[in-house]
């Protein structure tokens, strides 16, 4: 696995259900933001605009161990590895302030696709930046 990347996420009232706990699908949104920061949004935009390549979630497995509450600032910890020439595996964890274990764990599989949604090898530019870790 790569090094661990950190991305802070503020929990807003709109992210929660009636009990003040984050509504579970919102964790996918937090994970997506964190991955975008790891890969670099400018690289992702350039790949799409110039080469017609992007990434899509192929599989997501999430484990919920603790509720995350309104007004907390959580640390999204992200690491990844390559899995063949088309796929990357991501381990993402939501850590509450002062916690001894992650509140949520996400294991996300991403594939590279072209604009016609055909499987493509992960671009060399992305591979090089990922291998540098």
TrEMBL record:
Gene3D superfamilies according to UniProt: Hotdog Thioesterase
InterPro entries documented for this protein: 4-hydroxybenzoyl-CoA_TE (IPR050563), HB-CoA_thioesterase_AS (IPR008272), HotDog_dom_sf (IPR029069), YbgC/YbaW (IPR006684)
SUPFAM superfamilies per the UniProt record, alphabetical: Thioesterase/thiol ester dehydrase-isomerase
Keywords: Hydrolase
GO molecular function: fatty acyl-CoA hydrolase activity
Superkingdom classification of source: Bacteria
Pfam families assigned to the protein according to its UniProt record, in alphabetical order: 4HBT_2 (PF13279)
PROSITE patterns for this protein: 4HBCOA_THIOESTERASE (PS01328)
Signal peptide from the UniProt entry: none
Family label: Belongs to the 4-hydroxybenzoyl-CoA thioesterase family.
Protein name as catalogued: Thioesterase
Organism of origin: Photobacterium lipolyticum
Phylogenetic lineage: Bacteria, Pseudomonadati, Pseudomonadota, Gammaproteobacteria, Vibrionales
